[in-house]
Amino acid sequence: MVNTSSVNTLLSAIEDTGRDARRGGYSRPVYSAAELELREWFSAEAARRNLAVETDRNGILWAWWDLPGNDPTSPERRGALVTGSHLDSVPGGGAFDGPLGVASALAAVDLLQARENSGSLFRNRALAVAVFPEEEGSRFGVACLGSRLLAGTIDPRKALALRDADGNTFADVSRANGRDPDAMGRDDAVLGTIGDFVELHVEQGRGLNTEEFTDAAGHGPAVAVGGSVLGHGRWRFSISGQGNHAGTTLMADRADPMVAAAQLIVAVRQTAAAQSGARATVGRLEPVPGGTNVIASRVDLWLDVRHPDDAVTAALVEKIHGQAQKIAAFEGCSVQLTEESYSGTVHFDPALQRSLEQSVARTVPGAPVLATGAGHDAGVLAARVPTGMLFVRNPSGISHSPEEYVEDGDAQLGVEALADVLQDLL
Ligand code: GLV
Ligand code: MN
Ligand code: MN
């Protein structure tokens, strides 16, 4: 007999982990005490369901529900069905971005195990729940680092050399957490176990709240099926000037990179606003050395640009680079641009998407297909295996912020839809 847990009970067990009193919401960077505690929670919940928990060479957690009577070392795991998401967060993020997908996967396993026990589910393949590290890139700067390493879409040498804000390399932090940096990178054995990957995620915008989908009471459908992931990338601008004294340096004598950075941020917004479908953000800026009475010698700022057309994104970044050079020169500064990561627009596997649409319709009739502007491990893995996504309604329409929200009833419908999707694919 399986005791089914609700997704809301699972999430309430971790509601105090990684709370950020200063920023609000949650800060759960990869391999921080909070993220490690969440991994422990996941492993314990998986063990309660008799799932075999393993960590692969890239630090991805796997909880395997093998076929009955199956030897876990046998090749029966090849082509398995995989679901899951991530447990790390942006600084001051919401409660659902990542954990909703992991908790929903565990709750869906409960439903599926109950169905198997009652004879209404017959499986032809194993199922695994995966937890991907550093999905947000909030500690080492590159999003979806675990899935990129697994898929081989990032050079492991580049990944291992990435540094966090304290100067620790990803190699050192991985080693301290039990990984062998020399063994990290594309893993065809693990990729071979993924026949299909389906990620459930909180909807991160207003997609399900638009008039097109809402009823007279303004209520949208609880679940959508993913259609595509917007192309997106991160670039670092380093603007160098002359560090100096705030009191003794006349205004005419300054080469202040902070002034150039301020103008560049305004130029970014104007340039993106003039391009239909574009989104561009400067959400992080670091003056060096960063003193109230110090004219900075350098300012690093990070640009996030997204557009459905990869060529348009490239042209936008080139345009912004030109503007940065002009602005910097006018302020007596210089500027250097580095691309830190880029992922082109991804359209999910059409056959898998159709299957998801049919399965979800049983729980949420009329569930629409939505494109997402957020990045996901499912988008990265799509380069190697068929992937698909489900999105659960977020009435606030806000994400990467404490106001991100999911109603209990919608979360439960999301689990039921995910369980039906998985059952039909098993
Ligand atoms: C992650 O959520 C991203 O879209 O940056
Ligand atoms: Mn996410
Ligand atoms: Mn996110």
What is the topology?
Layout: H1 7-12, H2 33-48, E1 52-55, E2 61-65, E3 80-86, H3 99-117, E4 127-132, H4 145-151, H5 156-161, H6 170-176, H7 188-193, E5 194-202, E6 223-229, E7 231-240, E8 244-245, H8 257-273, E9 279-288, E10 294-295, E11 298-307, H9 310-330, E12 334-343, E13 346-347, H10 350-363, E14 369-372, H11 377-381, E15 387-392, H12 408-425
Parallel strand pairs: 3-4, 3-5, 5-15, 6-14
Antiparallel strand pairs: 1-2, 2-4, 6-13, 6-15, 7-11, 7-12, 8-10, 9-11
Helix pairs in contact: 3-12, 8-9, 10-12
The chain binds glyoxylic acid (GLV) and manganese (II) ion (2 copies).
One manganese (II) ion is lined by residues 90, 97, 136, 374, 400.
What's this entry about, in short?
With 426 residues, the chain is an alpha/beta fold.
CATH class of the largest domain equals Alpha Beta
Mean of all residue-level pLDDT scores: 96
Present as ligands are:
glyoxylic acid, manganese (II) ion
Q: How many domains make up the coordinates?
A: 2
Structural class by sheet pairing and helices: alpha/beta
CATH superfamily of the largest domain: Zn peptidases
Terminus-to-terminus distance: 21 Å
Low-confidence stretches: none
Radius of gyration (CA) equals: 23 Å
**Secondary-structure arrangement, i.e. CATH architecture of the largest domain:** 3-Layer(aba) Sandwich
* Overall 3D shape: globular
